[in-house]
């Protein structure tokens, strides 16, 4: 009987760990979406300010300063 109670306790703990893992993965997906949105926002801002152009390509040395940078 003691083995049965021990097994049930482990099954409950395992179920809780699986639920926690599921929640962590969902949070990780949300975080990845937020990071992607930030990248798109910063890309849009830098393109708008003329700091970079789309698509990104390496250019020759500039003869003038980049706007917003000293």
Structure description:
The protein contains one helix and no strands. The termini are far apart. The chain is 69% helix and 0% strand. It is mainly α and 70 residues long. It has one helix spanning 2-49. The model has no long low-confidence stretch (mean pLDDT 83).
**Main pleated sheet:** none
Q: What is the share of helical residues?
A: 55-70%
* Count of helical stretches: 1
The 3D shape can be described as: rod-shaped
First and last CA, distance = 76 Å
What's the average pLDDT? 83
Element order: H for helix, E for strand? H
| Assembly level | single chain
Short descriptors:
1 helix, mainly alpha, 70 residues
Blueprint (SSEs and pairs):
Elements: H1 2-49
What's a concise summary of this model?
The protein has one helix and no strands.
């Amino acid at each position: 009987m003691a083995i049965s109670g021990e097994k049930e306790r482990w099954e409950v703990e395992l179920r809780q760990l699986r639920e926690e893992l599921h929640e962590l993965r969902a949070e990780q997906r949300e975080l990845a979406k937020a990071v992607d949105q930030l990248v798109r926002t910063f890309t849009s801002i830098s393109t708008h300010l003329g700091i970079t152009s789309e698509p990104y390509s390496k250019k020759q040395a500039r003869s003038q300063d980049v706007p917003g940078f000293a």
